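In response to the reviewer comment on reproducibility (Comment 2.3), we provide here a single inverse folding case reported in full, input and output, so that an independent group could reproduce the run without further information from us. The structure tokens appear first.
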């Protein structure tokens, strides 16, 4: 893209190059910390770096490219989904009230991630936002595991690539009765702690 004679394309190419370089630097830091034993918590790439079957493992370049891709795909999908979440809550005043009540009354003053996970209505709002407005609603390829898989009257041999289309699946009336009526609209009972 940096060779296309339009400034916007060139700038996009330069930005992409910076992200690739950041991925390279990030993986270099992780590899260095991993090898020196200074990493105290597990991280996504630790399984790849610690793989015993080096023949099927990722190369350093492949890990850098994966890290860069996660940075690109993770930022836009997260920000887009959060935008839809805020939009959905703002458009449903009753949902906003329930959410505010739950956060104000169910979270301790010094809360942690484990406290947030226990918020039933917040979890409901997040799940519904991901169902209806998930930013990655395209095809999601999966490989059928060893031994194959039987579903309904169909047998899929191992190694077959199966695609699900989240946008259509999440709006299928056979799976979600009245799929376009979000449960964000529904009354969810939130009980105060005894």
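Designed residues, in position order:
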């Amino acid at each position: 893209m940096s060779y296309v004679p339009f400034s916007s394309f060139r700038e996009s190419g330069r930005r992409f190059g910076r992200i690739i370089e950041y991925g390279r630097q990030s993986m270099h830091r992780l590899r260095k910390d991993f090898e020196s034993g200074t990493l105290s918590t597990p991280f996504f790439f630790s399984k790849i770096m610690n793989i015993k079957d080096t023949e099927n493992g990722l190369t350093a370049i492949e890990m850098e490219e994966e890290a860069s891709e996660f940075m690109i795909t993770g930022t836009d999908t997260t920000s887009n989904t959060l935008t839809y979440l805020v939009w959905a809550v703002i458009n449903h005043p009753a949902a906003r009230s329930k959410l505010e009540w739950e956060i104000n009354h169910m979270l301790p003053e010094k809360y942690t991630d484990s406290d947030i996970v226990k918020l039933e209505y917040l979890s409901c709002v997040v799940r519904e936002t991901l169902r209806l407005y998930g930013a990655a609603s395209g095809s999601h390829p999966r490989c059928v595991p060893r031994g194959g898989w039987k579903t309904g009257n169909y047998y899929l041999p191992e190694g077959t690539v199966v695609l699900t289309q989240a946008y259509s699946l999440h709006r299928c009336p056979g799976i979600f009765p009245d799929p376009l009526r979000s449960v964000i609209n529904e009354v969810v009972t939130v009980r105060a702690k005894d």
